[in-house]
Write a structure and sequence with these properties.
Length: 349
């Protein structure tokens, strides 16, 4: 009986130990689950990081009015700045209106429907379309000559004060008028060729005309409505002018070959408002870097997206420097000797 009792006691103890061991094994398993839970918690924390600002993604819409070198350079500068300042954080929806103003409105409204974080409007028509489409989403313009004119603001002080700001491509108009006198002091009649559908072009020719008349030139404006009457108006201007001034004008920029094919055979030189136009049909220009103003616009965008700056308080920015340039090919074709202090325009790649 004693032996039987001892055997039963030993069995009970063995079972108790086994139960304790099983319980510890279970706890070890739970510890493993806790470790797994810790990994999941870390994963969840990572997915929540964008809300904390660590990996926030921004959607930026770009509406470019038309494809030509100046606007292309501004768009590239804008994208480069954003990619450098906010690497991997910006998704860009880039669209081109192919020179059609109603398409700008369609693109801008699409950006609003997509709830983009910021709109970059490259040229006047996209700026006007974006400003009309939203008063909430920040809109940054570039390649805009004069924001007061583009947005219908009287006595513009340099800051729009709403959801719009940006950069200007305006080169000093008085210096542009002086270039006409530098190159063609004996000329008498200056034709001012521009698209009447672009308010900034009208602003430029009106201003330059005042300076030219102070210098003693007789000036005549030759506005055309669009590409349908551009050639005929250019023909009229070339037939009545000693020299033609063309402002920063997107329609001319897209059709410099038309202007050149009419004016150069007639021996009529052109002073242009920007380098892209000069490279296609002009003799000389006061040039800015469109890439630089696009890059500056990208810097402004990064500050707005990250909350560092309030767009309503951001003044319009201007190109930091201007360079006198000439077109070697057209100067040669017109038997003109380039003036001292002017740099040749680099040939298109």
């Amino acid at each position: 009986m004693k032996k039987l009792l001892a055997l039963l006691l030993a069995a009970v103890m063995t079972l108790a130990l086994a139960a304790c061991g099983g319980g510890n094994a279970g706890n070890a398993g739970n510890a493993g689950n806790a470790g797994s839970g810790g990994a999941n918690a870390g994963s969840n924390a990572g997915s929540a990081a964008p809300e904390d600002g660590g990996g926030a993604a921004y959607l930026v819409g770009i509406c470019q009015y038309a494809p030509h070198p100046a606007l292309d350079a501004a768009t590239q500068g804008f994208k480069d700045a954003l990619n450098e300042l906010l690497p991997g954080q910006v998704e860009i929806d880039e669209q081109n209106a192919a020179g059609d103003s109603p398409t700008c409105a369609t693109i801008a409204n699409g950006f609003v429907s997509a709830n983009v974080d910021l709109i970059m409007a490259n040229a006047t028509a996209p700026l006007q379309a974006a400003a009309a489409a939203t008063t909430d989403i920040p809109v940054l313009g570039t390649s805009i000559t004069e924001y007061g004119v583009a947005l219908g603001i009287d006595n513009f002080s340099g800051t729009v004060g709403s959801n719009v700001s940006g950069t200007s491509d305006l080169a000093p108009l008085e210096q542009q008028a002086a270039m006409v006198q530098e190159w063609f002091p004996d000329a008498r009649n200056v034709g001012l060729l521009y698209c009447s559908g672009e308010p900034n072009s009208k602003y430029q020719v009106d201003t330059v005309q005042g300076y030219l008349e102070e210098l003693g030139y007789a000036c005549t404006q030759y506005p055309f409505a669009d590409t349908n009457d551009m050639a005929s108006v250019t023909q009229t201007a070339a037939g009545s002018s000693d020299v033609i001034y063309v402002p920063t004008d997107n329609t001319v920029a897209n059709n410099t070959g038309v202007v050149d094919n009419i004016c150069r055979p007639l021996g009529i030189p052109i002073i242009a408002g920007e380098e892209g136009i000069c490279g296609g049909c002009g003799v000389a220009t006061l040039s800015i870097s469109y890439y630089d103003i696009g890059y500056k616009t990208g810097e402004m965008a990064a500050k707005i997206l990250t909350g560092e700056a309030d767009i309503s308080a951001m003044p319009i920015e201007y190109a930091p420097q201007f360079t006198k340039k000439y077109n070697e090919t057209i100067c040669s074709g017109l038997d003109l000797t380039p003036l001292e202090g002017y740099e040749p325009i680099a040939p298109a790649e």
